[in-house]
Amino acid sequence: MDQTDIVHVVEVEIVSDVVCPWCIVGFLQLRKGLEMTGLGARIRWHPFELNPGMAPEGQNLTEHIVEKYGATPEQSQASRAQLVAIGQELGFAFNFTDETRMVNTFRAHQLLDWAAERGLQHPLKLALFKAHFTDARDVSDINVLVDVAEEVGLDAGPAREALETNERADVVRQKENYWMQNGIQGVPTICIGGKIVLTGAQEASVYADAIRASAQIPAV
Questions:
Q1: Are 114 and 162 in contact (CB under 8 A)?
Q2: Whole-prediction pTM
């Protein structure tokens, strides 16, 4: 999605959580949809916590799914297998194990908010998806977050300071509340061109049609 030499750039707002597998799936399908249209996008990510009350130590993923959604371990395993297959089709590796954990993401959202002002929110978001789902890194841990920030070109010192002082905590809470007050109850929620809102991970063709409609370009 290189914005160089692009005639039309679509504004895209994505409300998501970094531990939501369907959020990265939705983004990858969106990216395919953009490629189908030949248009570019200016993407902004917004915070949503699937589990705002998650304890600092996190929770085993299978236990969490059984407890929160009432799924059996077998159903949880089947869902993971489905995600692995979808990820392979889209070029993303989901590496689930029996030790995979659900973690608190409030710090990650604070870092993303901080990174937005430095023009690196988007690469940081994708790096955090990879850190959690592919590399099994704890994205609730300050040291991990600082390392990931540095990997995408952010300065480690200021990133650590922003996290340790919680300077973005109030702002992130306000943004989370804003989206919830506007009816966002599940993620991903993707707003295209300020006109079209799609909830849940859709097929690339659905995003392509929405992008064309937003840009007032006839479907092909």
A1: yes
A2: 0.94
